[in-house]
Amino acid sequence: MGCDGGTIPKRHELVKGPKKVEKVDKDAELVAQWNYCTLSQEILRRPIVACELGRLYNKDAVIEFLLDKSAEKALGKAASHIKSIKNVTELKLSDNPAWEGDKGNTKGDKHDDLQRARFICPVVGLEMNGRHRFCFLRCCGCVFSERALKEIKAEVCHTCGAAFQEDDVIVLNGTKEDVDMLKTRMEERRLRAKLEKKTKKPKAAESVSKPDVSEEVPGPSKVKTGKPEEASLDSREKKTNLAPRSTATNESSSGKAGKPMCGATKRSIADSEESEAYKSLFTTHSSAKRSKEESAHWVTHTSYCF
User: Whole-prediction pTM value?
Assistant: First the structure.
């Protein structure tokens, strides 16, 4: 049973009291939230993105998470609400000029100041180390402190000038109440987007079917619009354009059948006002006529044999 060999136990070794609740170090928690990726637990490096719940991620980690289809993906509960790359926003962060990083850490014995942050608010100058509340705009990705938005009330972004609404403001690494509020906003936003897609589909189908009907069946405006004077002029122009074609067809038909068509008028090229070079192309010209000596025998006579 023990206690032999002259050992004297103490009271706290024999009597077990209630276990003390382990408290999380606040400084360590703030460092983990603001300096490390929520998904891969690696140090945040640009490009840095944030989800609709205000959590910080490395963009490459989010892309790998979306492309991964293995069973281990179920372990990533921190990013289970991210369905596509459109659900995250790339942040436009302002660098802190007082932050040196690992520049002076040549020997590895440099003291890391946890209160010093890599990024600051571009308006007020507060450091983004978790001591002050920060938020970003979902429309443009600019990051500000909550104090800057309260002190300088405007409906336009302070850096890029993009217009935003209250729904576009998302708190970074907020409390449980903030996360619950952002979650309800996210669900409402996604439901609204689904309804808009459903309403756009029938409208697109109607817009495709309407031009087909208009092409097949002309409306009354296309048939009856226009003045009678313009219509008569168009008909006259059509008749004049069709006249030479009709004469050409009549001549060809008369040459084949031997008898001219009724109502068709013959027109000699010799009487026309064309040039001599143009007239010489036809057999009715004087240069094309041959004497009796040049004419062929009656047996072999054709219009094409010389």
Answer: 0.58
